[in-house]
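Regression test case RT-17, inverse folding.

Input:
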């Protein structure tokens, strides 16, 4: 039986509503809205096409800035080496090349490091498998509870095949700079699989809501 993990006390100090989960499951948090004014999301670079997206169509309402799933590095104060990484799946409809990922990842404002890594992985039995591109470190993330700025990662073009499953993963280094990051990947309302990674490995997880983001690139 997998060990049930206790939540770090720093989350409670932030007045977040955190729900205890068994290892390999996600931690949903409510992030109180910090501003009623929504900042428009960044525009994709000219010429890029959508390979996958679950973001809302309005630039000022692309995701829910008040609820998401925790991303936690192993060196967050009180974590004792326990980490939570998040991956969302996508399946290209056409053979394509991924050059950019945009994700609704935000900073909880706890700890000194405001940065996260975004990567592209292949699939292994319904969870992230082989690293295909990245990690790309994205810094200066928006504060949790705001909308609708996105974390943007640019990649050297990586080929993806129509009908095959791939993963966008948000994680941190296991040591050093960034390993103390505590953040949240904000949701869009969906009922779809996602993956959670912790020291026990990657686990499939059902989601009432899905972390928000899109995959962009070129489609021949």
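Golden output:
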């Amino acid at each position: 039986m997998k060990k049930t993990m206790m939540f770090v006390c720093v989350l409670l100090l932030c007045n977040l509503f955190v729900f205890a989960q068994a290892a390999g499951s996600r931690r949903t948090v409510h992030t109180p809205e910090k501003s009623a004014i929504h900042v428009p999301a960044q525009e994709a670079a000219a010429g890029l096409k959508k390979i996958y997206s679950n973001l809302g169509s309005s630039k000022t309402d692309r995701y829910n800035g008040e609820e998401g799933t925790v991303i936690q590095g192993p060196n967050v104060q009180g974590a004792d080496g326990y980490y939570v990484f998040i991956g969302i799946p996508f399946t290209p409809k056409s053979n394509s090349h991924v050059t950019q990922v945009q994700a609704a990842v935000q900073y909880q404002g706890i700890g000194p490091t405001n940065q996260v890594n975004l990567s592209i992985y292949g699939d292994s039995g319904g969870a992230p498998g082989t690293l295909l591109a990245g990690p790309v470190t994205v810094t200066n993330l928006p504060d949790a509870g705001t909308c609708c700025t996105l974390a943007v990662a640019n990649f050297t073009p990586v080929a993806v095949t129509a009908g095959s499953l791939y993963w966008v993963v948000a994680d941190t280094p296991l040591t050093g700079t960034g390993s103390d990051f505590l953040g949240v990947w904000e949701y869009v309302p969906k009922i779809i699989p996602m993956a959670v990674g912790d020291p026990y490995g990657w686990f499939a997880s059902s989601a009432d809501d899905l972390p928000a983001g899109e995959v962009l690139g070129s489609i021949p």
